[in-house]
Amino acid sequence: MIEDARKIDPGTRIETDLCVVGGGAAGICLALEYIKSGKDVILIPGGGPNQTADGIDLYRGGVSPPRSHEPLEENRLRMWGGTTTVWGGRCIPFDPVDFEDRSWIPHSGWPITQEELNPYIARACALCEAGEADFDARSVFPDRQGEILGGFDNEDFASWPLERWSIPTDFSRRYAKELEAAPNLRVLLHANAVHLQMDVGGCTLSHVMAACTPGRNFIVEAKKTVLACGALENARLLLAARDILPAGIGNECDLVGRFYQSHLFGVCGHVTLNNPKKDFNYDFEKDHEGIYCRRRFWLTPGAQRKHGVGNAVGFFFRPVSGASEHRNAMVSSIMLAKTLLGGARKGPRRLIQIVMEQKKDLLTHLGIVLKDGPAVFGQLAAVAYTRFFQKRRLPMILSPKSTNRFHLFFQTEHIPDAESRVILNPSSSDEYGMPRLEAQIRFSETDQRTVRTLITLFGERMEKAGLGSFVLSQEDQDRLKGGNLQGFNSNAHNIGTTRMSKDPSQGVVNPDSHIHRVDNLYVAGSSVFPTSSHANPTLMIVAMSLRLADHLKKLG
Ligand SMILES: Cc1cc2nc3c(=O)[nH]c(=O)nc-3n(C[C@H](O)[C@H](O)[C@H](O)COP(=O)(O)OP(=O)(O)OC[C@H]3O[C@@H](n4cnc5c(N)ncnc54)[C@H](O)[C@@H]3O)c2cc1C
Questions:
Q1: How would residue 59 be classed by pLDDT, with cut points 50, 70 and 90?
Q2: CATH architecture of 2-98+110-125+167-262+418-439+494-555
Q3: pTM of the entire structure?
Q4: Rounded mean pLDDT of the chain?
Q5: Hey, which of 190, 494, 497, 505 has its CA 20 to 30 A from 256?
Q6: Could you say which DSSP state residue 298 is in?
């Protein structure tokens, strides 16, 4: 049942078997699986079906130093469905190497293996509507060449690994019917968890204090509770509950909020191929179920070990700057649409500001579209149709092969570091009195070296295999040398703030996602990941949530 919690009288006490706090991919998938046990579930989603100004404000916080992280209310959606209401849908499992204890990566190693997770990854693929859990181009497309570029792969690179793309599934809409029909589930729309109340002994969660409006609190008293609010809010709720445990819940060893990880992303350089018409698997491909898939250049575990760097991938992308040097109607249309629609979403004042700042580039793009547009009009219309009007959306528009100018997008693991963290800001609270967060994300020399190694090896391999040239602009070279991370954007890849370890002195949760030393409190989502891989997190978030649901079902 999905109901409006604003009708619940203040002071009401609701008893249940399981309370799930958070209504994003983690919370919804956990609830969907757990309700099969027949036990009662209350889900507190932290908002209603739409994003509101009040919801945005609840996520505001600080960033230190300024501009080293996007504002905390950007990218995260405080609402029913959470961030899956806007996500892109890229689904990638972590690699076996991500679970290993790697001597060259401090704090690496998971207490669980990839083999153990494989069945859950298959189930997660189904929930994400991303097809079969086969991520190997050689078996998914047996009649085609495995590599992106014939002759590219060697001991340093493999380009057969696939990413799969979800519809992208908005979990709150896609699973609304099942959730609505479940007699043992109540989704309390608009309700927020505003305090986690421990019992006086500090070993058991007594209840979750919830509210839709400040001061009108009600209580959810559950045998077990799971926090599924995303990596930043999971840490915030635990740290803010200090009335019984002065350091917060699960924080005896000062680990909650630490090891905050994301990924390093960026676009750099450009490739010109000697023959873009030959043996080049660059576009999105559809598998036998019609699921979009795409190959990536993966730095092999051997190369990671040899160079002492983290896990990393690259793929060809269109330019991200407004520079109109590529002179192509298709690319110019994309740039115009992205800049103008993106600006319009931020309001008329921001749109005017963007147009004034980028006037020269925008006019050049417009000129290219008007001049060459008619020649590619059919192509443009077909691409726009697959991108915007089909149920399964074309994940992104790529520059056509004929441009023979391909930019390298990189996405790399963020090495765990205790000093990369979120903390509570003692002098700023939200309307419910919850202290706001401050993000202090840090990147190490190994992080910078991982990016540089991927890019350098990629360029060398391109030349050596005789496939083409890879040219970095002076600006790219300076950026890669200097490690200037001003303007970093996590893209909502928030990882690691309640990390998992068998050893309570090294982790906040145990391998069952159970908070050490607290009887009945669990954590779902990427906050429990000890390391970040290069992979976007949602598929793994769903897999780990299903694993936790199975565990809780077994406990009875
Ligand atoms: C534009 C964009 C594109 C993305 N593309 C991809 C992609 O292609 N692939 C990928 O893997 N990932 C992608 N992501 C990231 C992905 O969306 C997130 O990793 C994922 O949705 C996180 O799921 P979650 O359930 O852990 O957290 P969230 O989606 O953040 O959900 C948290 C939930 O907790 C609720 N909540 C928060 N605080 C409280 C509280 N105090 N009380 C009650 N409820 C609370 C929120 O309202 C929300 O319902 C993208 C993100 C963005 C913004």
A1: very high
A2: 3-Layer(bba) Sandwich (3.50)
A3: 0.92
A4: 92
A5: 190
A6: E
Per-residue pLDDT at 373 exceeds 90:
no
Cα 87 to ligand 1 centroid, rounded to whole Å: 8
Between CA 75 and CA 88 the distance in angstroms is 12
Span from the CA of 356 to the centroid of ligand 1 (angstroms): 33
From the CB of 411, is ligand 1 less than 6 Å away?
A: no
* Any ligand 1 atom below 6 A from CB of 276: no
> 398 to each of 85, 316, 318, 321, 387, how far by Cα in Å?
23, 8, 6, 14, 11
**Residue 435 near residue 238, CB atoms below 8 Å:** no
Which residue from 319, 307, 486 is spatially nearest to 412, judged by alpha carbons?
307
Alpha-carbon gap, residue 330 to 129, rounded angstroms: 29
Ligand 1 contacts CB of residue 90 (under 6 A): yes
Q: How do the domains of the chain map onto residue ranges?
A: 2-98+110-125+167-262+418-439+494-555, 131-165+263-318+398-413+444-484, 320-391
CA distance 226 to 220: 12
Tell me whether residue 464 is exposed, middle or buried, using C-beta atoms within 10 angstroms of its C-beta: 0 to 12, 13 to 18, 19 or more. Answer: exposed
Q: Is the pLDDT of residue 342 over 60?
A: yes
Query: Model confidence at 381, in pLDDT bands (50, 70, 90)?
Result: low
Q: Is 75 in the pocket of ligand 1 (CB under 6 A)?
A: yes
